[in-house]
Amino acid sequence: MPFQTGSPTADPAERTSSRWASLVVLCAGALMTILDGSIVTVAMPAIQGDLGFSSPGLAWVVNAYLIPFGGLLLLAGRLGDLTGRRRMFSAGLVVFTAASVLCGVATSQAALIAARALQGVGGAMTSAVVLGMVIALFPDPREQAKAIAVFSAVGAAGGALGTFLGGALTQALDWHWIFLINLPIRVVAWVAALRILAPDRGAGLGRGADYPGAALVTGALMMTVYAIVGAGERAAGGTAALAALSLALFVAFTLRQARAARPLLRLRLFRSRLLTGANGVQILMVATMFGFQYIGALYIQRVLEFGELRTGLAFLPAPVLIGVLMLGLSARTIGRFGPYRVLLAGLALITAGMGLLSRVPVEGSYAADVLPPMLLLAAGFAAAMPAVTGLAMSGVREEDAGLASGLFNTTQVVGGSLGLAGVRHAPSLVGNFPNSTEE
User: Fold this and answer.
1) pLDDT score of 395 more than 70
2) Long-range contacts of 103-108, Cβ-Cβ distance < 8 Å, separation of 24 or more
3) Which of 42-46, 47-51, 112-116, 123-127 has the highest mean pLDDT?
4) Which UniProt keywords apply (predicted)?
């Protein structure tokens, strides 16, 4: 049954208003999850000083969130198709909110890491089904392009906006508030979800509850993210062994899905070159942007010696530009030139921005050396992200929308993990910064 909102007997204007109200709710839920992935970046030194983390241990404030988040997205997306996407979305809000409170009151390393892992679970439940719900809400191509532009603007700007809010809250209050701020916002989002999002019927667990397959793919994805994010803290042989184990689990999962009577993942989904190609491009795009955010924050804080609030303000032009371009031009540009050309133009801008960033001098300045490549990256991402999102979801059947949404979000996590791992463990990038805390 397609995801619907509003009464079937309501007039078209009322149904249209209800759909856009539903989009606002979905974007609000997605925004907080995306913010949480980046809001800790600027607060990391404060967390380290307060709880006494070592540099390798501090990485687990991020890793503990990414591993369950990335590992459970595919499963949560499929369960959303089977049990109802609104139900999965609302339950994810509850789990994430409870975990945020636990993070905010944590007074030990173990408590914070455990709460961050629970946040990852709630984030996966919420994020996995959102894109599929957006696609189902707006079947008309023109409206769908506008809705994807809005959703992509929220997602793309959210990462950079999280850096700003992390700096502002940490300096004005303390690091605990980067988590506690989720409580009132998430409660409002949860109430709005129950009141605005129409209930939808899933296909039923009996039509796709392949529990052995779910265990295999969840284990494989978690192992993949763990292997990537922890690559710098273990010997090369250990990383290779984890990668081999992850590959073996993926192979076992594929064989299981090919033979299962009710597979968790229909392998025919990957016959779509648009789906597989768009997800592959997204991995590289997100790796680039996450790498820039991490290394940019280090450069601004350690080389330019900006405080937390100034660092957050330094990143603010990026989400502003992304929002303006996506909301004002994205849908019209894609409608006129097509998603392929817009995607290629966006990738060209991202490449140019990274080229400028590679030439930043040791004694540079924000206005001359950081802001220009940041704006190029923001413009490129604003062009490329809606295009690649539309390409990834085009042609996906309604009954597979949650699964395809979970897959798309999974590649985002894998890309982000690759980008962070690449720059975090590159001695020429991190080890030579002044005031480095590497041990």
Assistant:
1) no
2) 103/179, 104/176, 104/177, 104/179, 104/180, 104/183, 105/176, 106/51, 106/176, 107/51, 108/51
3) 112-116
4) Antibiotic resistance, Cell membrane, Membrane, Transmembrane, Transmembrane helix, Transport
**In 190-289, which ranges are E strands?**
none
Domain ranges of the chain: 12-430
Residue 68 CB coordination number (10 Å): 22
Q: Which CATH architecture has domain 12-430?
A: Up-down Bundle (1.20)
Residues of the chain with pLDDT > 70, as a percent, come to 78
Q: How many C-beta neighbours within 10 Å does residue 110 have?
A: 9
- Alpha-carbon span 185 to 28, nearest angstrom: 9
Pairwise CA distance, residues 204 & 33, whole Å: 27
Q: Is 355 exposed, middle or buried (CB count within 10 Å of its CB: 0-12, 13-18, 19+)?
A: exposed
Give the three-class secondary structure for 5: coil
Instruction: Check residues 264 and 367 and name the one with the higher pLDDT.
Output: 367
Average pLDDT, the chain: 76
Read off the amino acid at residue 156. Answer: A
